Structures are given as structure tokens and as C-alpha cells.
Amino acid sequence: MGEYLVRRILQSVVVLFLISVFTFGLIHAAPGGPTQIFLSPGLSVEAGKIKAHELGLDQPIPVQYLQWMGNILSGDLGSTFKNNIPVGDILWPTVKNTLILMGAAWILTLIIAIPWGIYNSTKEYGLSDQTASFISYTGFAMPAFWFGIILQSYFSLKLDWLPLSDMYTMGKEGNISDLFMHLILPVSVLSLGMLAGYLKYARSSMLEVLEQDYIRTARAKGVKENKVVFRHALRNALIPLITLFGLDLPILVGGAALTEAVFNWPGMGRLFVEMANSREYSVLMAITLLGAVFVVVGNLIADILYAVVDPRVQLSKGGKS
Amino acid sequence: MSANLQPTSHPSVPVQTGAAPNAEKPIGPWRQTWNKFKRNPFAMTGLAILLIFVLSAILAPYIAPYDPAKQDLMNSNLKPFTGNHFLGTDELGRDIFSRIVFSGRVSLTVGFSVAAVSVLIGSLIGAISGYFGGWIDIIFMRLIDVMISIPTLFLNILIGAIFGTKFIYIILILSFTSWMGVARLVRGNFLQLREMQYVEAAKAIGVSSWGIIFRHLLRNASFPIIVNATLMVGGAILAESGLSYLGLGIQMPQTSWGQMLSNAQEFMLIDPIQGVYPGLCIFLVVLSVNFIGDGIRDALDPRQKMHLSPRRLEKWRAKFSKSTK
Questions:
Q1: How far is CA B298 from the centre of its chain?
Q2: How far is A144 from chain B (nearest CA, A)?
Q3: Would you call B242 and A284 a contact, using CB atoms and an 8 Å cutoff?
Q4: How many contacts, defined by CB atoms under 8 Å, are there between A and B?
């Protein structure tokens, strides 16, 4: 276990380092470099040069990378071009908001998907199974933001049951029940998208386990069917779901951005879109990097959990990819 | 008269040479797949819907009754079926049906091009990585690790912000961020296939590495690639619509379904129905493509049972009719 843990952590650090190089390189690969693209186009050449010098953009690229990386590791994410606000000040609150939204959606999805998917695996092709498969197809094919718009126009504008957008009603910041009302629509949108994958996966993973020899043995020695399903099969079927969580993360963080845009949710994704429009490249780089950290760390945790619950992995999965 | 009764000479049948007349033609793998695919009602429905959309996109100038960009402020926000406007008009008096048809051109072009380009990149990189192995494999695999760790939407937006969002760039950006799945798939296949005896035989008679990759291995890995490519069309259409919805994708005067949606949301209070059509089109196209992809996969997989076997369908029908009574 120890060796596996060390190897996986080292691997993640290497990937994170490569991601930072990749992101940094991408910005500097742009024709004209970051000065050209991200500074206001109206700026004269002279003023542009002075500004670039102030920001250290006239240094050699490796030097700039090291400076940037050093700043980030010491907690300084840079500041915006326009108003010179520290990036951390605008970024951290949005991270919290995104985590609230994603966490709620993820919990709701698990609560629905696992019991339902497992029930469906025992009653293959029944009405409930068909319904679940219908929901899966819908969730995969539906543009999340469209579903959001439809929910908004029906539940907020027509029926006036739920708030249209934002995280809190003006003047009620921090009120939990108000937050809950604002969460309902965006969480429904996010959950439908996630449900599609989890339902399918829970069902097929369970079906696979039910075909194993040890299940046949359990049945042959006369264990009751309920006990076979819940005691013997369920535990093993849940293991692969851990991996799905890791695989889902990049889509989740990205998908949350669209949902946040629809519902004007003050999260990381919405901030990213805003900053892309106003070309604040230090914020864009910080968010991209942070998103990648989420994904890499999420995958790492998933892999470690997997290895804890299923010791076979450490042997067979030795060098992943 | 008697000549007609002659059994041996039949003028309508061309003279056959070589092959025995009664020898049964072996059914090729493509034919076999199609035969199974045909029997899948979902896949066939998907194919039909997709064909309708593709045809309407190709024939857009003939189908659309109006110029999609023509504004008519006297007739803005018309309800469906008023005047000659089948789906009504938007806030600038543009005919919604015409806009839907022309947007379909853009969205479908993006979907199919992105699938094609990213499959091309992905299979090439996966093939090289899987066949040669070694340091080249390590480099490509780390690149894939990096690219799948950055949330795709962020990556798309970031590259768009840097290089611009012209139509062709949108296609290139989306392809550049979606080839990794195919590459991993092809690499995995190649790792198995390169150990096959026919590869050894080909090497022994002096076929070059590229010859083996393109002539033998890619062909053997082609079926899973096709399934993946089909599903990718849907993913690309969704990705494009998301970007355009955020205002970071297809730009005016070109329109796509996603862009129409972002427009419709602004006028949701006045006319909520405007937001339904473009989204419905995206949904239907992506759903059809996914049905087709799943249909091909099921048809290719000999272990896979039919989507709904006749016996199961019968059982299900019996149960359903009982419960409604």
C-alpha cells in the first residue's frame, strides 16, 4: 500500500507540473503573446511596452514561468489588469459557491442513482429499468443549459414557485432556507446530467457482479436472494462507482460552468466566462489550474479509496496507463 | 415460340464466368452489422431523424421560407402560425423556422467535422503510441493525462480567448480538446493487436511499420473507432452549443442552435416558447446520434443481446396492458 500511495502521489505531482507548463505555454503561444491579446487593444505601442515591463512580460519566458509558479506556490495568484484586484480575493468565494452547488448535486445523484440502478439490475428490462434507461438517454442528449432555461421559464416565471437566478435573494445573504430554494433548480439540472451516467453504471456494475462465480456459489448453498444481492453483490458492485466519480470530475466542473451561467450562480465557472470576456488572463490561468487541481486530486483520492477497498488493484494496476 | 421455353439461355442474365451459379455469397462484416442494425428500432428511428436534419441542412436555402437574417421590426415576436411564419418570429422579426434550418447547417457541420478531425488525430496518435511504445508512448500518454485533467469547457474557452472564435477555429478547438478518448481506445487495441501472428508474418515478409499500422491494424481496430466517432458527433454538437450559448462560440452573423438559445433567454419573459425550438433540435439530433452509435455497438458485439427481444417485448406488453386495465 505504501509504495502504491507514494507512486500515485508522485505521478499526480508530475501531471500537475505538466498542466502548469501546458497552461502557461498556451497563453504564451498566442500570436503576439499575452501583451497583445489581453491588454486593451486601444493601448499605444509605447504604453503597451511600459505596461508589459511593469507586469514582467518582457522577461524571457522560462523566467516568467518560474516567477509565476513561485508566486502561485506562495499563495499569490496575481491580480487583475483592470482594477488591480488580487485574483485570490475574487476567486476563493466563487470556489466555495461552486463546491456547494456541485456537492449538493452529487449527493442527490448518488441518493437516487445507487438504489435505483441496483433495483433495476435485479429486474432487467422491467418498467422501472426502461424508465431509467429513458432518463439516461435524455440526460446524455439534453443540453444542460436548455433544460435550465425551460425549468426557469416554467417554475420561476410562470408558476413563480422558485427564484429565477442568483444564490440569495437581495438582503437575505447567508439565509439557509433561501439558499435551499435557490439551489433546487440548478441542482436538478446538474443532477439529471450526472444521473445519466451513474444509473447506467450502477446497473451494469451490479449485473456484472451478479454473474460472478461466488454469487452462484452463494445461491447454490441456499443463501436467500435478498441476502445475495445486498450482502454479497452490493459491496463489490459499489467499488467501480468510485472510479466514475474521478472520471466525471472534469465534466462536472465544466458542466457546472454552464449551469452557473444560466442561473447566474456566483461560482468559479461563471467567473471564468466573465473573465474570458474581459480577457483577464491571470484569472483565467488561476482558474484553469485550480480546476485541474480539483480533477487530479479527485482522481488521486478515488484511486486511493479504490486501492483501500479492493486490494487487488495495487497488484494489477501497478503502472496506470 | 419454342425458343422462350429453352431453359439454358436467358437473355436478361449476363453470362457468368468462373463462379458457380448457386454458390452462396458470404455476408461481409459490414453487411452483417447492417442486418443487425436494421432490426434495432431505436437505432433506425435515430437514423431517420438524423437524415431529416441532415437533408434540411443541405437543402436549407430551398426549405427556409425567409432569409434567416432579414429583420422585420413591424412583425417581431409573432406567435407560431401567424402569417406565413410557421414558428413565429423573434425579437427582431426574423423568421424562427428559417433561422432554425440555417443554424442546423452550422451545428451539424461542427458536429461532423469535429468528430472527423478528432478521430483522425486520436487514431493517429493512439496508433503510433500503441505500435511503437517506448518514449514516444510515454510522451503522448502524459500529454493525454494533462489534457483530460483540465476541465474541457475551460480549455475550450481559454483557447478560444487566445486564438479567436472564427467558425473554422471553433472546429479546430473542439477537435483539439476531444481526441484523447479515441487515442486511448486505439492505443489499447493496438497493444493487443500488435502481438498477433499476422503482424509477425507481415513483418517477416518485409512490410513497413506504417504499412502494418494502416493496412492491417487500423482496419482491425476500425469498428470501435466508428462507434466512438458516432457518439462524438453528439458530444461536439453539445459542446458547440454550450460555447455559443455563453457567447464564446459561433458569432453573429452566423447562427447556431446554441446561439439562438442565448438570444431566446434574454426575451424569456416576452416569449418563452422561442427558447424551446433550438434546444429541441439539439436534443433530437444528439439523441439520434447516440441511438445510432449504441445501435452500431450492439450490432458489432456478438455477446450483446437485442435491445428488446421479441419475447421480452411480448412479456412487457402483457404486463403493461394488465396494469392499464
A1: 16
A2: 9
A3: no
A4: 156
pLDDT mean over A312-321: 53
C-alpha dihedral (B296, B297, B302, B303), degrees to nearest 10: -140
d(Cα B203, Cα B207) in Å, to the nearest integer? 5
Asked whether residue B25 carries a pLDDT value surpassing 80, the answer given is no
Q: B72: which DSSP letter? A: -
Beta bridge partners of B275: none
The answer to whether the beta carbons of residues B92 and B173 sit under 8 Å apart is no
pLDDT of residue B128: 92
**For residue A174, what is the enclosing H or E element?**
none
Cell of B237: 454538437
Is residue A121 exposed (0-12), middle (13-18) or buried (19+ Cβ within 10 Å)?
buried
Consecutive H or E run containing A155: none
Q: For the segment A48-70, what is each residue's pLDDT rounded down to a tens digit?
A: 667 666 666 667 778 888 888 88
The complex's ipTM? 0.82
Inspect the interface and report whether the beta carbons of B316 and A157 lie closer than 8 Å.
no
Do B157 and A272 lie within an 8 Å CB cutoff?
yes
Classify residue B216 by its DSSP letter: I
pLDDT at position B197? 86
d(CA A275, CA A291): 15
What does the angle CA A109 – CA B276 – CA A108 come to, to the nearest 5 degrees?
10
Single pTM value for the model: 0.82
Whether the CB-CB separation of A41 and A84 falls below 8 Å is answered with no
Q: Which positions in chain B touch A142 (Cβ < 8 Å)?
A: 279, 283, 286
Contact B245, B261 (CB under 8 A): yes
Q: Which of B129, B157, B243, B322 to mutate to test the interface with A (most CBs of A within 10 A)?
A: B157
CB B157 within 8 A of CB B243: yes
C-alpha grid cell, residue B110: 461542427
Cα B274 to Cα B100: distance, rounded to the nearest angstrom = 11
Query: How close does chain A come to B34, measured CA to CA in Å?
Result: 22
Which of A27, A30, A295 minimises the CB distance to B151? A295
Let me know: does B91 contact B73? Beta carbons within 8 Å: no
CA distance A143 to chain B (A): 6
pLDDT band (50, 70, 90) for residue B289: very high
Query: What is the arithmetic mean of pLDDT over B295-309?
Result: 66
Q: Closest residue of B to A128, CA-based? A: B316
- Kindly tell me if the per-residue pLDDT of A170 is higher than 50: yes
> What are the helix (H) ranges across B257-301?
257-266, 276-300
CA distances from B3 to B9, B11, B12, B15 (A): 9, 11, 14, 18
Other beta carbons within 10 angstroms of residue A116's beta carbon come to 20
Q: What angle do CA B257, B260, B263 make, to 5 degrees?
A: 155
Q: In whole angstroms, give the CA distance from residue A225 to residue A233.
A: 10
Q: Is the pLDDT of residue B8 over 50?
A: no
* Phi-psi sector, A76: left (phi>0), alpha (psi -120 to 50), beta: beta
